[in-house]
Amino acid sequence: MKVSYDWLKEYYGESLPAVEEAANLLGKHAFEIEEVVISEQDPLMNIIDVDVLPNRSSDCLCHRGVARELSTITGVPLTHDPLVSKPELPATDAIAVAIEDTDACPRFTATLIEGIEVKESPEWLKTRLEAIGQRPINNIVDATNYVMFAIGQPIHAYDAELFPQVDGQWKFHVRYAQAGELVSLIPEGGKEEDRVVECVGTELLIVDGSSDTPIGLAGVKGGRFAGVHEGTTKVIIEAAHFHPIITRKTARRLGIVIDASKRFENEPSRELPLYAQADIIKLITDIAGGEAKGTVDVYPTPMEQTAVTVHKHKVNALLGLELSLQTMIDIVTRLGATVTEHDDSFVAVAPFERTDLNIEEDYIEEIGRLHGYGNVTAIQPAPQPLTELNQRHYYSELIRHTLTELGFSEVITSSFRKKDKVQLKNALATDKSYLRSTLSRNLAEVLDKNAGFNDLLGTPDTRVFEIGTVFYKDGEYVTEHVSVALGVRLKQSGYTGKEDRPCDEALSAISKALGASFPAVAEVGQKTVAEDGLPYTYQQGIAELNLTKLLEQLPAPTAYAPVPHTDAISYQPFSTFPFVTRDIALWTTEGTTAENVELVLNEHAGDLRIRTTLFDEFSKDGRTSFAFRLVFQAPDRTLTDDEVNQVMEKINAAVAALQWEVR
Amino acid sequence: MPIPPGHQHPLTKMVAEINSIFAEVGFVFAEGPEVESEHYNFDRLNVPKDHPSRDMQDTFWFKDKDVSEPTVLRTQMSPVQARYMESHKDNLPLRMIAPGKVFRNEATDATHEAQFFQLEGLEVGEGVHLGHLKGTIEYFLDRFIDGDVDIRFRPGFFPFVEPGVEVDMKLLSGDSALVGKWIEIMGAGMVHPNVLRDSGIDSNQYSGYAFGVGIDRLAVMKYGINDVRDLYTGDLRFVTQF
After folding, report:
1. Domain boundaries in chain A?
2. Residues of A whose CB is below 8 A from B97
3. Which of A258, A465, A479, A568 has the most CB atoms lying inside 10 A of its own CB?
């Protein structure tokens, strides 16, 4: 939430720490700070963007809340606190409110203000709203926004003369929607047409009691009914409390997230509506003139804050601190709780706006963060024997080591596929809406993608494997198991049949390492094998077996193999541009080794060379011939033949100077 | 031409190393299903239905006809904690880690994938406190990350812990571009009494801490990987660097 520094000052007073310091204090003790914006031109535009935590969205999605939080941190009381004294507002019988379910709408207040003049807001108000990214509209609408961003209570204003009366009374009715009932809402995103939504019956509606016409979805969004306009002189101001879950369900279903619904969803205090009325009456009469004619307040069951017993030993036991009871009480008092002290505990009642403080642990968190987590001393874990070993991990590692020794590299591929057996209810994209039922198809794609990289990677063929979960239906319901798949590709063009042998070798090696047996690929051919309880499939150079099933017959491991700490690997982003290869074969002078040749080649090949591989070597008449393959690739472009030819000319010249003869 | 050895994927390499570091101090490598019930993935973790805290994780749901109860692709490794606490409630104290694949229904970019690896850890016992959490995180990062590491706690909110903290780390040496900067690395806290209670553990006698960290995020810290999506493309130009 964007917080105006100038606005905070209104509550905190002139001693408010400087912008950066205030942001640091909040960051350390309360909330993450997204951004601090200090304006060179206008200090009134200085902003701290605060990421209010979900458990504090009930009281801190407003300036007073954030100012109060700073005051709690510093121990400096607010100079002006709009929530400090309970407002006494004269009643009126000009407005009647009927609530169908007071659990769904525990409180509804409305005030009549007459004799106002709708016009532009004063400069100070426009500046405050603009500073936090709100567009000023007119003094009445701006006042409702202002009070919401000041104390966190959403407010709505109606033109009283456009609101039909019954027997001289304005009648609000709060009731559940009927299934199929239509509600017109003010459109979003600058659209002209109203958004008409069809209710399912769980929505709470605010209804014009004269005609039973829906005015809006309670807590979520309103319609155009009795909208305030330039000629409005008489307004009804509504401030209510709606059940957070009902609000949230409706808002989610319709995809509406606006400032008001966000606040209602987070259960602000039920005490707030009356404070909001007091604040807005003052603000409107100040900036729009007029006079308040009374407030109706329907609040049948006032909410009481829970008294929570906090034990000194429990606080210290969870935080790992040795705080005195007095220190704890000081902190809890600072946040505004009423405290009754006992021998080794205290009973705390939170201020009404803190609806988040309900159990002992909630207070322990307050004490921990306000005292400062920096005071917690780290205690290293004492060695302790391992009581269980993870069989799947143990054997998976064994398979990994076995396969990497045979030249297989491990991949982890996506669990999502375009088409397969199990489709998700809500998918990311249409090409990712199914879950993989096999690893084989993913490996086939991995082989396709990598088969052309042999020269680049210095490998004679492509060998990959994956160990991962696959999903399918076992009878009616979705199930999963861990699968192992390995694949070999000799040629970029596809399976040749010669892949069977390396696959066979890999499977025998796994079977040997695990002490389990399964038939060889060569015997199996391209079909599914499910005998001996060791099902696996083999086709097109890819074998896959059910590891979960295999594990059932393997003994429990007794100790993990040691894992060396992997040394610092400095990863280099790899080039995705095509590479070019050039072969060079040369007769060398007597006594020249392959390493000598490689050094010379590399020295003259320059930065574009990324690999040099010896692929042939033979001696005849006292001379030795070496054949090398050089791989060239640029990080930022496709190389041209010319570029590479120039490099090769340099190499040829260097070689000639050494009396080596290019064949 | 001889066949050069292949390369293990950096993520499974990290999981093996993580396990080895934690096994030395008795943390058991626990696991659970990727297809997880709403009950274990949310309800048992103090994340009630229709509560705003559910918004913290965009979730993939299975179709009603395919499952016997509301079911998701697990969004976190915490359900494994809940399952482990439940099965070990009569054998306390416990120490466990749960590394594994998790899923979030959100758009991907260089620092976010819809599927990624997460490590969670848990200790429950008598007198377990925030200092033990700090010590365990330090113990782990000191061994896992090359060079000296500093950590700090900031207030955080995760429904299954109370108090909750965000953990930042700072590399103190080395030549990484990240040296000297505080980087948010994990969420942690003391296990919420509701979570202990629902697992059958008496929160008056026992307490516990839990932490969770993206292993992909650790890969960024450890290896300097610049795009976490590279971990899942099956591109050998990437894998063979490890």
Report:
1. 2-74, 95-298, 307-375, 391-551, 580-662
2. none
3. A465
- Going by the DSSP 8-state scheme, the letter that residue B145 receives in this structure is S
**Spacing of C-alpha A108 from chain mean position:** 35
CA distance A645 to chain B (A): 25
Question: Distance (Å) from the C-alpha of residue A236 to the closest C-alpha of chain B?
Answer: 31
- A132-170 confidence digits (pLDDT tens): 999 999 999 999 999 999 999 999 999 999 999 999 999
Residues 387-406 of A with CB under 8 A from B: 387-390, 392-393, 396-397, 400, 403-406
d(CA A190, CA A438): 48
Q: Which residue has the higher pLDDT, B132 or A591?
A: B132
Beta strands in A2-54 (DSSP E): 2-4, 32-37, 47-51
Residue A40: count of CB within 10 angstroms of its CB? 6
Token output for B6? 């292949």
Count of pairs with CB atoms under 8 A, one residue in A, one in B: 285
- Which ipTM was obtained for this model? 0.96
Looking at CATH, the fold of the domain delimited by A95-298 is given as: Phenylalanyl-tRNA Synthetase; Chain B, domain 3 (3.50.40)
Instruction: Answer positive or negative: Cα dihedral of A410, A415, A417, A422.
Output: positive
Measured in angstroms, the CA of B198 and the nearest CA of chain A are apart by 16
- Tell me which residue has tokens 């769904």: A104
Residue A5 in this model has a pLDDT that exceeds 80: yes
Check: CB of residue B149 under 8 Å from CB of residue B185.
Answer: no
Query: Touching check for A414 and chain B: CB below 8 Å?
Result: yes
